[in-house]
Amino acid sequence: MKQIIPLLLVGALAACDQPDSSEHVDVPTIEELAIDPERLKALRQQCKTDRPQLGDVLCDRVAEATNRRFFGDGNVPYTPPKNPPKF
Questions:
Q1: Nearest Cα residue to 57 out of 17, 24, 34
Q2: DSSP states of the chain
Q3: Rounded-to-integer distance, Cα 53 and Cα 30, Å
Q4: 8 within domain boundaries
Q5: What is the pLDDT along the chain (87 residues), one digit of tens a residue?
Q6: How much is the pTM?
Q7: Residue 51 is assigned to a structural domain of this protein
Q8: d(CA 57, CA 20)
Q9: Residue 1 covered by a domain
Q10: How many Å apart are CA 49 and CA 11, to the nearest integer?
Q11: Residue 32 falls inside a structural domain
Q12: Domain range enclosing 39
């Protein structure tokens, strides 16, 4: 009995490591979505109306690509004014 329990635990842990087959769908990367505004717009609309069918992974990537297109890369240099403001 003591030998069977560790084998069952190992088997259960090994089964937990198997990914869901629905996650293997070809999901575009954030960069691919960010460079294609038409596709991004269509997917954003689909995520609003039918998120359960598209999946959280794709809709999260669509949201992140939208943010990257809006905010840019975030590397905007700060240029202070020549004359400091007077309060």
A1: 24
A2: -TTHHHHHHHHHHHHHTSPPGGGGS-PPPHHHHHT-HHHHHHHHHHHHHHHHHH-HHHHHHHHHHHHHHHHTTS-PPP---SS----
A3: 19
A4: no
A5: 667 776 666 666 666 655 554 454 588 999 999 999 999 999 999 999 999 999 999 999 999 999 999 888 777 778 888 898 888
A6: 0.58
A7: yes
A8: 12
A9: no
A10: 40
A11: yes
A12: 23-71
